[in-house]
Design brief:
14 strands; three-stranded antiparallel β-sheet; disordered C terminus; 13 helices; alpha/beta; nine-stranded mixed β-sheet
Amino acid sequence: MTATSLSSIWKKFNATEKLWGDWILVNNITLIGGPSNVGKSPLLCAIVAGYLQGRWPNGEDVPPRFCGGNVLYLVPEGFIEQTEMLQHWGLEAKLFEERVYVPQINIHGDPDYQFKLDHTTIGALDQICTQVKPRLIIIDGLRAIMEGDESSSRDSDALMGPLVKLTRRIGAATVIAHHLNKGCEILSIEGSVPKKDWLRGSTNIVAACRSVWIVDQPNPTKPRERRLTLVKTASGAVNQHMAFSMGDPRDGLRFISDVPKPELRFQTVKMEEWLIGVMQKHTKLSKPELHQMAGEAGFSTTTLDKLMTKLCPNKLAKVVEGKKVFWRLLSPQVVQQEAEVVQDNKSSHEEDEKTLVNNTPASGMVI
């Protein structure tokens, strides 16, 4: 038995090498969540194509020390469609023959056996990884290869635990596609900022991943455009965005610079809900503090400034302390009192006008 410093252990297991920016990390699992038919499978194909060609879909280069590695592609529902798609995009067949491997594990001897990563097949997969030595493992998707209930912490740990260990042992990056909870498409369209709790199933699934994305379609008026949001990462900041345009998946994906957003009317409503919630938690906040919090929440600071102007002075009030200006939320009681004062002033003004009219003679002179 030997002893080692806690610091060295921490560095060993928490060092983050980047395969694709903050989005895909080496020795870790990346989870990509999205609703059905949003384009998760074509996105995984684009990731494979980018890795094989040495350049990611957004134009970034694959780090040289990770170039030229093999890809292990787990597609429980069939690999033919993905292969045809990648070849239609112009990838050479030689790349598939030399660097892309599909595990064929049927240790049960059943011709109708559907591939599942249970406690037995995970060992067989470990042996395949030892032979193939993949740098990138693609799993499309999590529910298809999972044995048991994805909402069960125990069943989730039985899958994710061995996968994490395998990924670290071989020094690879594992990317898994997954589904979102029902209703998240509506939340996206209505302007909600994607969150990691949108992912379906046990929270242990997300906890096991060091990087989590959500791909959604926030603006129905732009049906081809998809938004990617980084909702969790062990390196860098969350709420980073990328975007791609996709029509027919066979025609490929085109990453674009303008990230699609929900329609402005939905953004404003959601931002107001967020702003009121933030102000309820704090006695007062300066505008720079609000700008920072809005950025972290994925909101535009320009839209925030317009909203604050709109809400002042009915719901928000400025507080000047020395040379600093703060904003505070008016309580419902204060808003009601101010409304009553306005109404009283209006009534008093109307009464004065009425009295003035009654006391005015025909000549127009006031008595």
